[in-house]
Amino acid sequence: MLLDNRIVLVTGAGSGIGRAVSLACAAQGATLILLGRTQATLEETYDQITAAGGEATIVPLDLETQLHRIPDLAKTIQERYGRLDVLINNAGILGSMTPLSAYEPPIWEKVLRVNLTAPFFLTRELTPLLRAAEAGSVINVTSSVGHQGRAYWGAYAVTKAGMVNMTETWSQELGPSGIRMNSVNPGGTATEMRAQAFPGEDKEALPTSDSITPVFLYLASEHSKDVNGEHLDARKWIEWAPPEAS
Ligand code: NAP
Hints:
Helix content is 42%, strand content 14%. By secondary structure, it is an alpha/beta fold. The protein is globular, with a radius of gyration of 17 Å.
């Protein structure tokens, strides 16, 4: 299968896009490390993966308040697997949709911590394990508002712009050591976060989380081995499937 023997860590794996991507990677043979804040939802993802014959482990960890636990997590992954093939920095929060001049500083701090500082710190601590993999791949989940700022999207848009820049900067630094870093913009997708941002919207009209997983499979697989520092739009990859082995 596409991701046989790969060790894949997904943040925010208990819901939405993170859950769909975790299930899709597991269905392609990967062993999943499911990280998130809420144990119960992580367990649901775990149950779905194992019921289908896949392998996973859960790591309940709050990316706002428990970054100090990440070095221990790296140690555990080192001891258990000796490497990490793919890191998907997916977890995120919306914060409040208010003008920046009215934005509450504690919410600003929280959004920056979960959406930007946590992916930085996680990637930094896990880099030695990604280097130990044959072709380490980091996938940062961004947003359209990270490519072009938009009124009332506040700290969320600022953190996604930070992710875009972090992808460009870090991909150049990591490239020579064989690790690649790219970003994915999911586009509007039917999840809790989207419903929070657009409460009146008909979610049936939006792509599902399951439908946008192909771009993640592509970036996690050897088919993207020469792709580094790119920003991919998930909508353009919905039809992607691995080429048949000849
Ligand atoms: P979601 O269903 O709300 O998922 C967000 C995930 O992040 C949840 O599993 C949540 O866990 C986790 N999370 C939040 N705070 C956390 C913390 N402090 N520590 C650990 N985990 C935490 O929303 P989603 O739409 O799937 O979002 C996934 C990513 O896609 C986000 O980065 C988002 O910005 C991006 N995105 C989404 C859309 C869209 O239309 N849906 C568009 C562009 C970009 P809990 O449930 O336990 O809080």
